[in-house]
Amino acid sequence: MKIAFIGTYPPRECGIGTFTQNLFHSSVGEEAVVGGSQGFVIAIDDNGLHYDYPKEVKLTIRQEEQTDYLEAANLINLSGADICILEHEFGIFGGQDGIYILPLLYRLKIPLIVTLHTVLKTPSYNQKAVMTEICKIAQSVVVMSQTAVDMLSDVYKVPIDKIALIAHGVPDIHFGQLLTKKEFKLSSKQVLLTFGFIGRNKGIETVLRALPEVVKKYPQLVYIVLGKTHPNVVRHAGEEYRVFLAGLVKQLGIEKHVVFLNEFISQSELFKYLSASDIYITPYTSEAQITSGTLSYAIGAGNAVISTPYWHAAELLADGRGRLFNFHDSPALTEILLELLDHPDQMQQLRKNAFDYGREITWPKIGEKYLELAESIAKIGLDLESGSPMILDPLALPPFLLDHVQRLTDDTGIIQHAKYGIPNLKEGYCLDDNARALLMVLMTYKRNKHPLALKLSPTYLSYINYMQTQDGMFRNFLSFNRNFLDEVGSEDSFGRTIWSLGYLLGNAPNDAYYQTGREIFFDAVPNFTNLRSIRSIANTIVGICHYLKSNPTDEGMIKILEALTGRLLTEYDIHRSNDWQWFESLLAYDNAFLPLALLHAAEFLHDPRVFEVAIESMDFLSDVTLRNGYLSVVGNENWYGRDREQSMFAQQPLDALAMVLMFHQAFRLTKDQSYIQKLSTCFMWFLGENDLRVSLYDFETKGCCDGLESTGVNRNQGAESTLAYLISHLSVLEAFEEVTKMEAELV
Question: Is the per-residue pLDDT at 730 higher than 70?
Answer without folding.
Answer: yes
